[in-house]
Amino acid sequence: MGMQRQLQCFFLVGSVFVIFFIIICWDEMRDETFYLHTASSQDLTHLKLRQAHRRRVIRELCSAKSSLNFKEKLITFDRIPNKALDHLIVDDHHGVIYCFVPKVACTNWKRVMIVLSQNLKAPNGAPYLDPLDIPLTVIHNSTIHKTFNKLWRRFGRFSRPLMHHKLKNYTKFLFVRDPFVRLISAFRDKFAKPDEYFYRKYGSTMLQRYANISTPPDSAQDAFAAGIRLSFTHFIQCLLDPQTEKEKPFNEHWQQMYRLCHPCQIDYDFVGKLETLDEDTEHLLKILGLEKYIHFPPGYKDRTSVDWERKLYNLYETDFRLFEYKKPETLLDE
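That's the Carbohydrate sulfotransferase sequence above. Prediction below.
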């Protein structure tokens, strides 16, 4: 009988201990869950405030009363030439419009847009599901992407009402970058190594005009073999030369971002920056409801800003102010 009572007491004490342990663990789990939820909510609030701020700055500077003045500021969307709308990629499946800016993660975002639109089929005949599976050779093929300019080619004068409908109802986004760092990236990509297309179309003329080489080699390979290379100073001289744009428009890789994406005429729902690419991409995919469907390709680790000079700043001032990049004070001498 005594043994039975001892067992009952032991069982009772053990039960109380287990219940006490469960209560403690539950409280800790609840506190941790609350902390994680609170932290996540705080992060989301921060990202929402960031977007609200970026969009507000653009709206304020695009208003007629702002101190920022540039040629295209007050024109209406319908006055933008159709050819100038070729950077607006449309995905009708998900109601998304992406304005791509070269040298601002656009290769990976084009990959994502191809997956979303399902316009491109893999060798097995099925649409691509993983952005990284898409061959690099086709990503920048203009025939792959559905753009606003193609709407005009297809529908003619009826295209503008269609564009307005999509702009009103679709989620519109772009990604931007420190304008001068973007220039450096463009120069290094197109002129610091042999690129036959850019050498023949731009590099050879720059060498003639700004490097005093009257007869440049016929090819980039020959120029590099002879030790003849375009310097960044020559490249900047070309950009600052008023004659350059009189002859032909800037190439898209160094065209000002506002002239590619028209933020004063298009009210973008999301403005991402390369400097905050990871956070902005995760936030945007959640907004679109695609965070479980799309995995954004990794990359773009070198996002360091540098300073350049006053004349170059004047040329790109609109980009700096619209997208809130600090005015540089000195020129980096390469």
